[in-house]
Design goal:
The protein is an alpha/beta fold. The chain contains eleven helices and eleven strands. α3 packs across α4. The longest helix has 27 residues, at 269-295.
Length: 309
């Protein structure tokens, strides 16, 4: 789907956002604030962006210390979800990547299923004992209706071609009062407004949609969900998002620190030292900024839970 009609509220009233990155720009709904990338990235180019450099070689996306941090965050997230569902629940994660969250949930006794568009990431996830991975489109997975206690889309909804259609399909797959967990970048955050095209979470090469709280609420309600709750702070995402956005704004290579932590790029020692020194000096102010914007309800991400009616 394109940007002719808003996927969240159905409005056809759009305006061009001042956010421009390369040849692409953001087209934003004037009614609810939901935005989409225009022009849309072609499917072939989009698939290329989910390569080994995106997921990391040998099932390690980041340098070792960050890998441990990511694993700890996934365990912490799994414990939070575990408290919201019954023991031995049946859980589905859309876009499960390497399967780290499902692995943690499986260890807590849940039956775990995941979908993943990347064959590379899916192959790695399949090595985890106790979870089942599907690579075909969701509607072709032959999953039973009213069979899942929880569905997770963690930084995935913004990547989907038709998020409204996917959410309606997920509604059918979930049991009554089933839990829906979503996290997406928050287009109405202070990070986004201040950094503009330099915002780390914009990721215009891969993000087809960009959500605001109002737009995401309307999207969920139209799909049949209720009891929507939100948070705009993530220890994993917000401080680093503010830090990388600041470095981008200063004119350093786009997402340079992130790519270094992912081992995508290797800089001379002097430049690496400068980069990491500056990051060390600004990480505390970035964390304090992230806390402040979240306190104002304008944090860098939207973490939302809802229930099937």
């Amino acid at each position: 789907m394109g940007c002719e009609v808003c996927v969240a509220c159905g409005s056809s009233r759009f305006s061009f956002s001042p956010i421009i990155s390369g040849v692409a720009r953001i087209v934003q709904c004037q009614e609810c604030g939901t935005a989409c990338t225009h022009p849309r990235v072609e499917d072939k180019e989009l698939e290329k962006s989910y390569s080994q450099s995106y997921y990391g070689p040998e099932n390690a996306k980041f340098v070792p210390v960050i890998e441990k941090w990511v694993a700890w965050m996934n365990k912490r997230r799994a414990q939070w979800i575990d408290k919201e569902v019954a023991p031995h629940s049946r859980i589905l994660e859309i876009g499960c990547g390497r399967g780290l969250l499902l692995k943690a949930l499986s260890h807590l006794g849940h039956e775990c299923h995941g979908t993943e568009r990347s064959d590379l990431a899916a192959a790695r996830a399949r090595k985890i004992v106790g979870i089942r991975i599907y690579t075909q489109p969701l509607e072709e997975c032959l999953l039973k209706e009213n069979s899942f206690d929880a569905v997770i889309l963690w930084h995935v909804l913004e990547h989907l071609e038709s998020p409204n259609i996917i959410l309606r399909h997920l509604f059918k797959l979930m049991k009554p009062q089933g839990l829906l967990v979503i996290e997406v970048p928050n287009l109405s955050s202070l990070q986004s407004r201040l950094a503009g095209r330099h915002w780390f979470h914009l990721d215009i090469e891969r993000h087809l949609y960009h959500f605001t709280p109002n737009g995401l609420y309307k999207l969920l309600e139209s799909a049949g969900f209720e009891g929507i709750k939100r948070s705009t702070f993530s220890l994993e995402q917000c401080p680093f998002g503010a830090l990388q956005s600041f470095l981008n704004f200063l004119g350093f290579p786009a997402e340079g620190l992130y790519k270094m932590l992912k081992k995508e790029v290797s800089l001379p020692y002097s430049k690496s030292l400068l980069y990491f020194s500056l990051a060390g000096l600004t990480i505390l102010p970035s964390a304090l900024f992230a806390l402040a914007e979240s306190f104002l309800g304008k944090g860098g991400v939207l973490t939302v839970t809802a229930r099937k009616k």
